[in-house]
């Protein structure tokens, strides 16, 4: 049985720790810092088996070098054609591999960065900074059209799929989700749940694909009315990619 736990880093990062059935080894996803991973492994009495990287940004990769020095046998999986140079197994669209007895399929999801990939396993997805609960990543390198196409990867997943993104942005994202979908009862209900959790410093993740399909404006761009957008952000054409770009521009200045 696969178990996933959150290791907190920086102000709002999550490094995900994946444990296999033997319960002795751990795979970590996007270790932006090494120190909290070392502390977790010591506390749990486990060893590191591998690292999964979704994209090259420093807050997802800074810990890799120290972890590899401490565990020289481990394999680092990551995207092809990436500025990050410490990848041992470079992965692209539809590549597959197994770690700790868990099978993963890779999908390329550019938009936030051009090298971004996601890891899809049975009942879960590690999606880095592409999809957030109630939101999506900023467009630092890719285009809005690329990011909208990346959203289709998630829309095709089973509703029960657990969503493991790497930042605790949900509270702020839900404020925007409510502004862009004022008549969506699911949004308002989830926003109240998120506010209650964060007031107690409880993690809002993982989410599920089914929930995100109901509340996330960036997954639902084709369903949002143009009238819901402020006049300065309304696209000229009422198409999904155009509305997605408009929503992203609005969120950047929200």
Automatic annotation (TrEMBL):
SUPFAM superfamilies on file: Metallo-hydrolase/oxidoreductase (SSF56281)
Protein's UniProt keywords contain Zinc: yes
Binding site for Zn(2+) 2: 59-60, 129, 167
Chain positions recorded as Zn(2+) 1 binding sites: 55, 57, 112, 129
Cofactor: Zn(2+)
Function: Thiolesterase that catalyzes the hydrolysis of S-D-lactoyl-glutathione to form glutathione and D-lactic acid.
Name of the protein described by the UniProt record: Hydroxyacylglutathione hydrolase
E.C. no: 3.1.2.6
Cofactor: binding comment: Binds 2 Zn(2+) ions per subunit.
Family assignment from sequence similarity: Belongs to the metallo-beta-lactamase superfamily. Glyoxalase II family.
HAMAP family on file: Glyoxalase_2
Gene: gloB
Metabolic or biological pathway: Secondary metabolite metabolism; methylglyoxal degradation; (R)-lactate from methylglyoxal: step 2/2
